[in-house]
Amino acid sequence: MERESGGIGRRWLLGLTGAGLGALAASGLLAACAPPHREEDGGGQGGASPEKVTLALPSSLSSLDVGRESGTLNYAVACLVQEGLLSVSPDGELRPGLAARWTQPDERTYVFTLRRGVTFSDGTPLTPDDVVASVEAIRDPKNTNALAYLYAHVTSVKVTGDLEVTVRLKKPDALFLWTVSPSGLLVSSRAFLKRHRGEVGTGKTLLLGTGAYRVTGFAADDHVLLERNDAWWGEKPGVRTLKLDFVPDAGTRLVAMKSGAVDGALGLASDEARGWESAAEVTYTEDRSVVALAFDTGKAPFDDPRVRRAVAHAADRAGMAEGILHGKAQVAAALPSPGMWGDLLPAEQVTAAYDRIALPAHDLAAARKELAASGHPDGFTAELHYPGSGPQLGKAALALAAELKKIGVTLKVEEITLEQWIAELGSGKFPLQFLWYFPTTGDPAELLDAYLHGEAEATNIARYDQAKVTGALKAATTETDSGKRGALLLEAVTEAAGDLPYLPLWWASTATALSGRLALGGGDGPFALTGPWAARLRSS
């Protein structure tokens, strides 16, 4: 069997084995790259771009290395500097990146042919050995790289030609190509990785890549400064200097915009973005993100299904979507949004299946009845923490606490830092948590393998383990027929829904605010604000 492609759509391979990346997400930026080519108009409309642009990001970074800190803001910066073998278009199609083409001689082998003439921003040429070194750095257990799990099924990565790299797997994996997109691979040089082992991404070493920009300065928790890489193989970015200020406080961000200190902001939550509409051009994009409550099914009181249903009945999900997100969100029926199913299944089949998922409706009488029949009829006390960069989660938590109080349950709500929130995910310390996830691929398995798979100990924060669900997810991993694979994944979704390990609250949109002098061209879609996005900035 041999397949050859210079581009790949969602009909063939969509997904990512596991999903640790999105578990750490806390902004509206995603983690994939789709470079505009020199022969294409990737810059959108408008005239010459300003020489310097300053934008605000809603949270801070302590490292530029996505292997050490895998939040989506880290990817938003790193994908301007580094690239994967494959890239991703704004609407979620895998396309050529550093690899101009690839073949699949058999189900377990992938051969990538690199672009000729690509150089790193320090002037050294990209070689196949640099790709091998980048994968080796991820797989090296001494590096404790957060992306290492993606390569668990890889048996070898070797240079097999002047511009050729061959990857072999232990078993077929219908999702492998996403691993070598920026979701799982950002290439640097062997020399740089060797020279700065253990220190990549700090303010001292920064990053080295082949991308549209190069990092010239980084102050953790304050800002990152980037300069245009004039040697980039893609279309030359219009903006020469890009400064990204880390401004966690929403009010401070808006004041900075109105005063002219920043030219815009990325990753604005829908509830915050309305306040920007008088000061900037605001664009809303469906980002496939999901917010859900995660119940630890192995720890009291949420090991009791009736307690989970009582909480679900107390949650006014429709009121949250309308009142908190101002209608810029859709009440969620499952973890993957309908748009994530791509061409795996017809849209009407997914819609019909989601319509059959009968999640508990907002009904306090039903909530009281479930609680009375549970092992905690007199109520209980629980905590729910949310990251400061997600004020909409805080509002939802307070709304839920008010409703739970009416049935005799005390919910203590606390705002914590993004770093604390990430550290708590899956720690087992708190049996009730928010799942706030921004997918890095266009495939539902990214969420399902991470959060419903009984063997996904690192990411399954509900500690949910149901044999039929896990069996369906395992079968889907090696199934290459899109229809059969989609049916298996949908079976897992519907089977798990009755157990309520998670209560999906909403699927949201992300907002981008730019001053009237700027526009972000290059196409729309859930992956539009990804990869070398700054290369698409132009004067409006």
TrEMBL record:
Keywords (A to Z) from UniProt: Signal, Transport
Keyword Zinc-finger among record annotations: no
This protein's record includes keyword Transport: yes
InterPro entries xrefs: Peptide/Ni-bd (IPR030678), SBP_5 (IPR039424), SBP_5_dom (IPR000914), TAT_signal (IPR006311)
The Solute-binding protein family domain, residue ranges: 93-455
SUPFAM superfamilies: Periplasmic binding protein-like II
Family that this chain belongs to: Belongs to the bacterial solute-binding protein 5 family.
Protein name: ABC transporter substrate-binding protein
Natural source organism: Streptomyces wadayamensis
